[in-house]
Amino acid sequence: MSPRSWRVWGLVLGVLAGLSVIGFGYWVHGVAGYRLGSTWVVVGFTITAPRLLVAMGVLMIVGAIILYLSDVAGGIIVAGAVCIAMIWCYYHPDHRVANVKLYAASIVLGFLSAMCAGLSLKRRTDAVGLPAAGPAPGPAPEREPEAAQV
Amino acid sequence: MRLQGVAMSEVSGIMANQGLRRVQMRVITAVVVVFTLCCSGSFGMEDVVSSSGPGATILMILVLPLLWSLPLALVSSELTGMVPEAGGLYRWIRRAMGEYWSFQGGWWWTLSLYVDSAVYVALALDYLQNHYDFGGSERALIGIAIVALFTFINIRGLDLTGWSLWVIEIVTMVPFVIFTILGIAKGTGSAIHPFVPEGESFKEAMQLGLAIMLWMYSGWESIGTLSGEIENPQRVIPRALFIGLPLVIGTYLLTVIAGIMGAGAGQWANMWTGGGGLDFVEIGKILGGNTLAYLMLISAIFSNIGLYAGYLATGARPSFQMSRDRLFPKFYGLTHKSWGTPWVAILIMGVVDGVLVQFHFDTLITIDVFLLMFAYILIYLACIVLRYKEPDTERPFRVPLPNWGLIAMCAVPIAIAVISLFINGTDWMIGGLFGIMTGPIAYLVFKSIYKGTKDEALEGAAITPEGEHTELFAQMEA
Fold first, then answer.
1. Which of A1, A26, B47, B138 is most enclosed, with most CB atoms within 10 A?
2. Among all residues of chain B, which has the CA nearest to that of A113?
């Protein structure tokens, strides 16, 4: 597949990941009983509130669109948003199992989207012809030319 | 295929292992390395006995290696022979599945080993601290001293590492031999009864025990990462793996039987590590008084130090090779001019471990198992893919199965690895998935910075399928 084809796949999968996590966020907000999140100020606002999931979903969609234009930036944004939403799941110990089940689709889709970005990058990058050469095998002063035996 | 007296695999080795000094490792020393990486005593088995029951533990000790360890040992032997290069699994996967997946496998495995190796020093320090009751600053100093010592030994070369592992394993295993003889001779409990703890189903009993057992029986791929620094790894490593496997099974079997019997009738339920339970040190006290307890304590400390020394050696190699392939910072790929070792990769791992040993990080321990399972799946897939992609390439050792048989054999450990991802609880899964997600991010960052190396410029590409030298080979010679 061409780099462009990989980016198109990355875009589609990233948008699906974003929609999936937005759906998860609204489900948490509407159904689950912890819509306000933790009371401790900064962490509560940024990490534990369900709005974070929605924000990450939007970020994933934006990242996926960027991915179509720049595989590196877009892939990092999508995968980074997946990681942040995963921290959200971790911060709700009472509901971790349910959270991870609902978030599984986003994780898989986000991983695949970042993978497409990586494969696009691989296809379009002019790799170097030779491996980075190290110095010549060094003489071990007392032992050359025989190899050490152990 | 041989060309001008040089086998293809030898040429590829010359290309891929520049700057590394090879040591002439005897098979017996390689066996010690394998034993250290995959066993190094039976500490940790106590938890399996109490959570799964004596009978189920013995069953797992006997059956699991056939389903889990033997396939990995076989596959590692075939791949080491075919691609005998520094970095081991990273280069195996690259040859089969290309740069992207090899980076993922190498990254996950390396990340896992960075954490894992530090855990062993922390465990050794825990044993020491429980016995000698020293403070935090002393603990930090001793931890840094252990890390510094073995970092130097590793940088000095595989020959010295091999000798140090010999000493460590002798100190670790001699108390276990005494323990086993006394346990079987003086023990009173039944080694296989009950099969599972009362009131628990077989499935319930298996859960925690299986997770620990998978961990205890892992590590067979690790020695492959040292291929670039061992003379004739195609011959030495498979032999070491096949001698090491029954040795590890025998060690676990006999010591656990001795432990269950030595603990006394019905006391198996109180066998656990971490204080308050009957661990091997406490059972040693029952069997041989304070002397044996003290010897078992020393054994436990050396066992963990041995694991650290072994995993420091193997854990640094994939990142070294990734650097050589222009997928990691350049300085990781430097080799020592006199000692021919990847000293920067080893030193960085040592420094990270020196910092990590200061913390208690239970969650991180569980993350590394998750990462390792994904890397294992890629190793099995690499072996299968290479059978189809390069059916005629020279394989000094070939798993004696047709392709469909190899697929069937690999399907079992892959299934076990997948199942194991779900049996350890959600904390573990979230942490592990987080670690997995760092792989694609790291690839995007490093690939965009360093550009990578063309597949054609790697192993085997020095000779065309027709047996002619490529321009690349001429460049290499120049």
1. B47
2. B440
In whole angstroms, give the CA distance from residue B140 to residue B356.
10
In a 3-state reduction of DSSP, which class is residue B24? strand
> In the structure, what pLDDT confidence band is assigned to residue B16 with cuts at 50, 70 and 90?
low
Q: How many CB atoms lie within 10 A of CB B447?
A: 22
pLDDT tens, residue by residue, B374-414: 999 999 999 999 999 999 888 889 999 999 999 999 999 99
Select from B29, B341, B437, B438 the residue whose CB has the most chain A CBs within 10 Å, as the one to mutate to test that interface: B437
Model confidence band, residue B366 (pLDDT cutoffs 50, 70, 90): low
pLDDT of res. A100? 82
Q: What are phi and psi of B40, to 5 degrees?
A: 55, 50
Block residue for tokens 């040089």: B6
Residues 6+ apart with CB under 8 A from B146: B121, B124, B125, B305, B308
**Contact between A147 and B333 using a beta-carbon 8 Å cutoff:** no
CA-to-CA distance for A129 and B472, rounded, in angstroms? 9
Query: Can you give the pTM of this predicted structure?
Result: 0.88
Is pLDDT of A144 > 70?
A: no
Contacts of B14 in chain A (CB under 8 A): none
Of B25, B324, B430, which is closest to A134 when you measure between CB atoms?
Answer: B324
Query: Could you give the 3-state DSSP secondary structure of residue B363?
Result: helix
Residue indicated by tokens 């234009």: A69
